């Protein structure tokens, strides 16, 4: 599955958010009674209104959401790249994630100690990023010269790797994240991803604001949004305190509480969805009398890969995918109507799965 690592300096609200995420899950999704994989890792359901609509039209007895994992990665302090605090463990944990959810303290509270002495989310973000950049820098300063040597001996792959990682190294030396590297072709792209640089991972900034700023944000979060925009990252506003309160309430009362605060939905739902987008993921659906179910694949996945998300045998024995778009399924009131309207297609192994596709796979066993 896909994993988002929650990082940030101490005392910014990481654990509060992580606990709220896993508790929401425990309360709402009866489909996954065991949601905490490890003490610091939890799987959450990705909220998707389309699933309810499909289940209604298709007469499915239940719905099953698709999931995303969140890992609470504690232990980042200044100097982590030099092994301070839980430094090395921390960096290793980040390496194993697909995206970074970076929590920033955007609330004032004299009772909660700030490790750097004052509330300044931009400075905090830079402190964390600096550690990640230093770790990448150190690894590339060893790797790139080795690759260059091999390239000089005629190794083509090493030549491509040296080119793309050399570009990343230049960026890091200028104090910029490796994320801004532009691979020149598919091979470079592959080698760049394979290098698993920490600062190459997509980033979502979570601005943890005080309760009364939860809908509009505050001056701190405004600056974080500017920063995110300038570096191709995303940002959301959340009040961890509200989220922590919400999960203690009965599900029926939550909507009213949110409305009173001027919020359309819980911040956690926004984090989950933003994480999903950040990872470049799309959803396809399967529907039957037993269940309507959402599945996750990366953008650009072909039909056999989508089949493989359900079962490896489906991918191995893939023959065809029968599919219709979500909008057609709704407009023509289900499979029979969509078929009549000619919206039901039979697609082969080159078909690129689209977000919202309703799929049925034909395969050999
Ligand atoms: P972590 O070290 O980043 O995991 O931070 P925690 O989630 O443990 O939070 C540190 C402290 O800040 C705890 O006492 C929380 O109750 C408090 N805290 C977290 N979020 C908020 C918030 O939005 N507002 C206020 N006032 N306190 C918060």
Automatic annotation (TrEMBL):
Residues 2-260 form the OBG-type G domain. Residues 123-150 form a coiled coil. Residues 280-363 form the TGS domain. SUPFAM superfamilies: P-loop containing nucleoside triphosphate hydrolases, TGS-like. InterPro entries: ATPase_YchF/OLA1, Beta-grasp_dom_sf, G_OBG, GTP-bd, P-loop_NTPase, TGS, TGS-like, TGS-like_dom_sf. GO terms for molecular function: ATP binding; ATP hydrolysis activity; GTP binding; metal ion binding; ribosomal large subunit binding. GO terms for cellular component: cytoplasm. Keywords: ATP-binding, Coiled coil, Magnesium, Metal-binding, Nucleotide-binding. ATP binds at residues 11-16. Its cofactor is Mg(2+). CDD domains: TGS_YchF_OLA1, YchF. It holds the Pfam family YchF-GTPase_C. Belongs to the TRAFAC class OBG-HflX-like GTPase superfamily. OBG GTPase family. YchF/OLA1 subfamily. ATPase that binds to both the 70S ribosome and the 50S ribosomal subunit in a nucleotide-independent manner. This is Ribosome-binding ATPase YchF. The lineage of its organism: Bacteria, Pseudomonadati, Pseudomonadota, Alphaproteobacteria, Sphingomonadales. The gene is ychF.
């Amino acid at each position: 599955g896909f994993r988002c690592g929650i990082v940030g300096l101490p005392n910014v609200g990481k654990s509060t958010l992580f606990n709220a995420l896993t508790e929401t899950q425990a309360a709402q999704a009866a489909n996954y009674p065991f949601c905490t994989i490890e003490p610091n890792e939890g799987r959450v359901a990705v909220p998707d209104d389309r699933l309810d609509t499909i289940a209604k039209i298709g007469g499915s007895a239940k719905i099953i959401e698709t999931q995303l994992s969140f890992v609470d990665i504690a232990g980042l302090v200044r100097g982590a790249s030099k092994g301070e605090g839980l430094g090395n463990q921390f960096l290793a944990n980040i390496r194993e994630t697909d995206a970074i959810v970076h929590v920033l303290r955007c609330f004032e509270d004299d009772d909660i100690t700030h490790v750097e002495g004052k509330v300044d989310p931009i400075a905090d973000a830079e402190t964390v990023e600096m550690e990640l950049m230093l770790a990448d820098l150190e690894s590339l300063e060893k790797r790139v010269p080795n690759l260059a040597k091999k390239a000089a001996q005629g190794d083509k792959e090493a030549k491509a790797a040296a080119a793309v990682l050399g570009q990343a190294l230049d960026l890091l030396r200028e104090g910029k994240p490796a994320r801004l590297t532009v691979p020149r072709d598919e091979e470079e792209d592959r080698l760049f991803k394979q290098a698993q640089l920490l600062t190459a991972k997509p980033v979502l900034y979570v601005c943890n604001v005080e309760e009364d700023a939860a809908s509009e944000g505050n001056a701190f979060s405004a600056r974080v949004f500017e920063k995110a925009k300038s570096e191709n990252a995303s940002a959301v506003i959340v009040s961890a305190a509200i989220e922590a309160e919400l999960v203690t309430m009965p599900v029926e009362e939550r909507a009213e509480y949110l409305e009173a605060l001027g919020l359309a939905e819980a911040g956690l739902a926004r984090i989950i969805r933003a994480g999903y987008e950040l990872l470049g993921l799309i959803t396809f659906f399967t529907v039957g009398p037993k269940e309507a179910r959402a599945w996750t694949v990366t953008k650009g996945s072909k039909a056999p890969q989508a089949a493989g998300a359900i079962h490896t045998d489906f991918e191995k024995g893939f023959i065809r995918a029968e599919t219709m778009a979500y909008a057609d399924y709704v407009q023509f009131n289900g499979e029979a109507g969509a078929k009549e309207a000619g919206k039901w297609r039979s697609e082969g192994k080159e078909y690129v799965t689209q977000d919202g596709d309703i799929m049925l796979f034909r395969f050999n066993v």
